Fold Acetyl-coenzyme A synthetase.
Amino acid sequence: SFLGNRVNVGCAGKMQKGNEDSRDEDVLYHLPYANLERHHDSDNVVVPEVFHEGRATHLKSLDEYKKLYEESIADPAGFWSNIARSFYWKEDFPSATACTYNFDLNVGPIAINWFKGGKTNICYNAVDRQVENGLGSKVAFHYEGNDLEDEHRDITYEEVKDEVCRVANSLKEMGVKKGDCVCLYMPMVPELPIAMLACARIGAVHSVVFGGFSAEALAGRIFDAKNNVVITCDGVMRGKKLIELKKVADEAAKLSQARGHNVGHKLVLQRLGPEKCKVDFVEGVDHWWNEMVKPQSTVCEPEWVDAEDPLFILYTSGSTGQPKGILHTTGGYMVYSATTFKYAFDYQPEDVFFCTADCGWITGHSYVTYGPLLNGASQVVFEGVPNCPRPDRLWRIVEKYRVQQVYTAPTAIRALMVAGDKYVKGTDRSSLKILGTVGEPINPEAWNWYFKVVGDERCPVVDTWWQTETGGHMILPLPIPGLHMKPGAASLPFFGVVPVILDEDGNEVDGEGQGFLMVKKPWPSTLRSISGDHERMQDIYFSRFKGYYMSGDGCRRDKDGYYWLTGRVDDVLNVSGHRIGTAEVESALVLHPAVGEAAVVGIGHDIKGEGIYAYVTLMNKFQPDDDLKKELIQYVRKEIGPIATPDVIHFAAAVPKTRSGKIMRRILRKIANEGSKVDKDGLGDVSTLADPSVVEALIETHAN
Ligand code: 6R9
């Protein structure tokens, strides 16, 4: 949460007040040292031979990819303008402003513009245009509910269009105008992408908050974005758990009000009904979806917006306790999400696509809502979780809908792998053509299982590296016939993407080598800003090394020019593919009366990829026992949400600090990961430690 006056990075203690406003630029960037063993695998090449058999592919050969890539780099404006003009523009953009930018803080403020001056509407392009092109009766969403026995609905493009217009008209009735930001706090039902499209239709900006976030976290986002309207749902079952979204939304609205921002309206979808989930209702503020939306007209003229008008903000974790609202605009995001979807998944008109991501994350934005619909695709929208009722759920869905492309996260793959091959083997996966992954580096063991057991060695594994900030895929092995795949490598850049590796001094690394992963030129869906704080965006992404976008990831390039991601270089953890700032967890912990100071680092975790390890020093009078551990874990879950649950609480007398009071996370990371096996002489430079005995004590009390 960032509602209260939380303390920030490097100062997770109540007793220190020195650097409360320390910001992301104070982070000591470090190149990750973990995960490197898999890189020795870079000669291990896999070539699936048959995925394209009997099927036309968008890219025919590696040469064709190289030719298009060269073109996209030589003339980005021309390359992307050609693609952009295959969409509908109410007014064409002037070719002269197809791409104008400044990527160099030494020259001036960061500014990125694509197709400026053009007028379009992304909802019109995603929905109306498909209906006009004769796809009205094509299924847009195969909705698969949480329970096997539960409702399953097919929703056509025509029906999506009608419902989008009704929701858009409801938003207008609640006073939403162009440029206003609407908060969506919903489960993974088709009404979520529909509500996103409805916002876009009237030029409103959406801010989707993942349905697993706590009231505190939601309130912080509502407050930051000044949402007057929140769209939510009574409740939902995820697996066997009841999640009472309306109750959380009510609590969040109260918290926001206490800070001085009032939520005027809540639109509430009934998913479970009063028998399974009771809700409080306030007349005039709360509106049932069925009562407000259903009677509306199915006609709603799209608002024609500038290509550079905002489309959405999406909060993501950074190095401070305060999540940042990443801003994306309309035209560039439309062109890039659609084009990456088409090529990454080699989408053909008869295919059924299945992305398991929730729209609360960027993957759900680009590869559930926008990319697929902009391509007129049919897709499965799945409300539940991969292992419920059994770990064969995903493959049963593949079988049921004859899915061609699955797109999921390594953490899910690992969890299903551990459950056993039998859950896969009993299912018919012959429809599958492509296996996608996203969210974190995929370890070769999980890659091989996905490739061999799930895909029967027929389907390429498309490991897509990208970020909330990039809006769409950046580095990936495109499914090109004959392409050499290397398990664990994100591989090659997408069209228009110029990755650069910098060493610690900021020199570009040519050929083989490793360092900070940067991007040299803007691509159409580059983030434009951080909502309400352009300076912060410049600080985080453009100030450490001038003239480049800094991804925050470490990376290695091998002799074949393939890129291998090595992990975050800042204080952001990747837990089950979700970004969590160490500072967010620390801020939550220090709110508890027993906690004096907290320092959080990542540890290796078999399923989650990275787990959360929290060092905690206690205030006098509090005893370090198991009950308090449990209480602190619950406390973090309540403050942020279950995704931030600490795996380990390590009660410590003190944490190592520099003389200037900065926590030495490098040391904490090593002790957390290596425990008593840690090599005391291998801790690196400890000369700045204020009190070296602190380190000894930590090693003795290590918790793993
Ligand atoms: C799309 C998404 C972004 C961070 C990113 C990186 C990690 C994502 C990855 C990957 C290695 C991949 N990441 N995909 N690392 N290989 N294929 O996940 O966005 O939630 O913003 O996270 O996730 O560390 O910087 P987001």
Summary: The pocket of 6R9 is lined by residues 316, 361-363, 438-441, 463-468, 490, 551-553, 565, 568, 574, 579 (CB under 6 Å). The chain is about 30% helix and 20% strand. The first helix runs from residue 62 to 74.
